Amino acid sequence: MTATEIHIGLQLPALELPPITRTTLALFAGASGDHNPIHIDIDFARKAGMADVFAHGMLVMAYLGRLLSNWLPQPRLRAFNARFAGITHLGHRIRCGGTVTEILERDGERLARIELQAVNQYGESKILGDALVAI
After folding, report:
1. Beta bridge partners of 132
2. Residue 12 to residue 100: CA distance in whole angstroms
3. Residue 16's domain spans which residues?
4. Does 29 fall in a domain?
5. Could you tell me if residue 11 is inside a domain?
6. Which of 130, 128, 104, 127 has its CA nearest to residue 115?
7. Which of 1, 33, 43, 46 has its CA 20 to 30 A from that of 71?
């Protein structure tokens, strides 16, 4: 995508993921090194008051990162921030989206600010964030 094609209001192509499974969580735990038992051990999760294990927040943030790098090459990413807004349970299907909300210049570089959101199939926000990308 060229700089002239990027404008305020532009919607990034959505990224839709398959449902979260125990396998997804186990693979992410191995890849990330985050073996917190709340995400992989049902007995531990229940003792903590949860009905079952749930996704790592960083897994869903990684999905937002994939949304960005599917849209523009990763070296153009200048900043990436996220706020965890809800628990992602087993079976949730995550949909990531973004909207260009600002075009700015910083240190002689033209940038676009992207508002990001990851929601489940019920429209519940799981992660809200923003990113700055060079355009």
Report:
1. 79, 113
2. 8
3. 3-20+55-134
4. no
5. yes
6. 130
7. 33
Q: In what order do the strands lie in the sheet with 77-84?
A: 15-16, 95-106, 109-119, 125-134, 77-84
Give the CATH number, domain containing residue 130.
3.10.129.10
Q: 10-21, pLDDT tens digit by residue?
A: 999 999 999 999
CB 16 within 8 A of CB 95: yes
Count structural domains, the chain: 1
Query: Is residue 49 in a domain?
Result: no
Place of tokens 């996220």: 82
Residues 7, 103: contact at Cβ < 8 Å?
yes
pLDDT of 3 over the 70 cut: no
Q: Which residues contact 135 (CB under 8 A, 6 or more apart)?
A: 3, 6, 72, 76, 103, 110, 111, 112
Q: What is the pLDDT of residues 75-133, one digit of tens each?
A: 999 999 999 999 999 999 999 999 999 999 999 999 999 999 999 999 999 999 999 99
**pTM, full prediction:** 0.93
